[in-house]
């Protein structure tokens, strides 16, 4: 028998208007508990607006939000964790003092030493907040978002501006939080971040959700299965047909194909220079390109 899990968070018919602009356009979604749910979309898609509505920071023009099947109460903000894109930290406080100050505010707070270990803050606990690196700051902000032991954690573009190593470090912690059974809702511009962290992804564009599924499901549903990449000036004579779907980007041409042998044969017959050809599996970026005709970051 198929069992369905009740969503931890659900919204129905959300509309957010700013004057004549509709930032969120009649949007509904349901997030099952215990997963990492990603909202992916280009600049201006409406991700931050939607997430701030879900966090109860903005009251929408129309629509309803339910937490654990019920309308949210005034306690909701104390029950969840939010890692904001920008948070001011007091420069004269150390990392440990900052954590201890917030720790005192909650009855059901995370064990401080455990939290410091989880977020890899041990080595910097005596450092002043304005003397820590970008990656260390994000880990501190994540620890602050977790301090009240929330079941639902919001991460708004958590790794923006971090170097690859700091991103990986943050992702490892997010994985651990997810493996503790917490539900995570994150927004990101980065396909690799969504692909790495998220069980379910919704792709948003122009205030609407245009596709939802696991990264693998979205890739299987919305791509041809194989990407051939060539330099931008190669394959000028190739147009979309039964063999190829052609996407010409500023820095490359991507040919999406289902049958690699047939595609390469067709390219050779058309005298296309394959010296700089590479073959990849499609990613969420390919999904986004196919659904919107645009790159994620244009
Ligand atoms: N307070 C506001 N007043 C007026 N317009 C707003 C306001 N907040 C957002 N917008 C507009 O709503 C649209 C959606 O913005 P939003 O920040 O939600 O998008 P986003 O997907 O989060 O983009 P980004 O990835 O750049 O953060 C944009 O056109 C934005 O300019």
TrEMBL record:
Which PANTHER family does the entry link to? ABC TRANSPORTER ATP-BINDING PROTEIN, ABC TRANSPORTER ATP-BINDING PROTEIN NATA
- Return the similarity comment: Belongs to the ABC transporter superfamily.
Q: Which organism is it from?
A: Desulfatitalea alkaliphila
InterPro entries named among the record's database cross-references: AAA+_ATPase, ABC_transporter-like_ATP-bd, ABC_transporter-like_CS, ABC_transporter_ATP-binding, P-loop_NTPase
Signal peptide boundaries: none
Domain named ABC transporter: which ranges?
9-231
Tell me which domain of life the UniProt entry assigns to the organism this sequence originates from: Bacteria
**Taxonomic lineage of this organism?**
Bacteria, Pseudomonadati, Thermodesulfobacteriota, Desulfobacteria, Desulfobacterales
Which protein, by its recorded name, is this? ABC transporter ATP-binding protein
Print the keywords alphabetically: ATP-binding, Nodulation, Nucleotide-binding, Transport
Q: Name one GO molecular function term.
A: ATP hydrolysis activity
Which SMART domains does the annotation name?
A: AAA (SM00382)
